[in-house]
Amino acid sequence: MGEFVAVSAFRTGDADSVLAAAGRFFTANDCLAEPAQSTEPVTDDDVLGFAPVNGWTVVNWPRYFTELAAAEFISRDLAVLGSTVRIHDGDYWSHSLLRNGATLDRFATMPDYFTDDPPEIARLTARYAGQPAVIAEAVGCPVDDVAPYLVPVDVEDGEDDEGYHVVEPEVGRAFPDDEFELGSPWVFVDFWRRFGPRFPDDLSAYLWRLRLAEGWFDKLPGGDAEL
Fold it and tell me: Which of 70, 104, 109, 183 could join 169 in a cystine, given CB atoms 3.0 to 4.6 angstroms apart?
C-alpha cells in the first residue's frame, strides 16, 4: 500500500487565522475538531498547522483526507491564495491553485488513473492538464520555474502481485538541485519550493493541532475533486 498525503499551503503569515478558518470549516460541516494535547501522539485523525515560511502557512491533513473542500473554504474565508496537493497511493500527485475559494488551475500526473474509457480520459486530461502561466502569474514567479513539473506520468499495463497499478517512473529532475525525480509524487515539494511554500521537514514540529472526532470521513465534503 502506497502513501496517501493531503497538504495545503495558504499565502498568509497569520497561522492563527488559518487555524480559526479550519475550525469554522469543521463546524460548518458538523464535525467536531478540538485542540489535541501536546503530550498525545499524532494520529491519523489530526490536522497539523505549521509556522509560516516565506509568507505561506502549511496545513497537513489526515491520511485519506480529501482536502479540496477544506482548502476552498479556508482560501475563501481568508481571501487568500491557496495551493493544495494530494498524493494517491504513492502513485501520482494532483494540485489545485485557489484564489478566494475559486479554482484557478488544476493538475494531475495521472488523469487516466481510474478509467480506461477514452472519452473520460480525454475529459480528465484536459481538466487536469495544468496551466503554468496561470500559476506563475498568480504566485508571482517566472513561468519556467513551474512548467517543468506539470508533466504526465505513465501507468504501465498490468498490476503488481497485490493488484495495484505499476507506475512507469519518469527519469530525471525538473532542475538539477531538486530533491525528487519527476516520476515521484513527492516532486511537489520541489514544485512548491519554486514559488514559496515549504513542506515541513519534520511533521512533529507543528505549531497547532486539531483532533477530528471519529466518523469525520463520512461527514466532510470533498469539493469537486475527481483525482
Answer: 183
What is the C-alpha end-to-end distance of the chain, expressed in Å?
Answer: 18
User: Rg of the chain over CA atoms, in angstroms?
Assistant: 17
Question: How crowded is residue 20: how many other Cβ atoms within 10 Å of its Cβ?
Answer: 13
Residue entry with cell 519527476: 182
In tens, the pLDDT along 182-226 reads: 999 999 999 999 999 999 999 999 999 999 999 999 999 998 999
46-49: strand order across its sheet: 33-35, 208-212, 46-49, 57-60, 5-10, 81-88, 92-99, 102-108
Tell whether the model's pLDDT for residue 129 goes beyond 60.
Answer: yes
When the pLDDT of each residue in the chain is averaged and rounded to a whole number, the result is: 93
Please tell me what DSSP assigns to residue 105: E
Q: Which residue has the cell 520555474?
A: 145
CA dihedral (37, 62, 69, 112) in degrees, to 10, reads 170
Is the Cβ–Cβ distance between 13 and 205 less than 8 Å?
no
- Number of Cβ within 10 Å of residue 205's Cβ equals 10
- Tell me the pLDDT band of 170, cut-offs 50, 70 and 90: low
Give the whole-angstrom CA distance, residue 48 versus residue 62: 8
* Residue 65 neighbours by CB distance under 10 Å: 24
Q: Is 161 helix (H, G, I), strand (E, B) or coil?
A: coil
Q: Give which of 147, 128, 129, 126 is closest to 137, Cα–Cα.
A: 147
Helices (H), the chain: 15-28, 68-78, 118-127, 132-139, 143-146, 188-193, 216-219
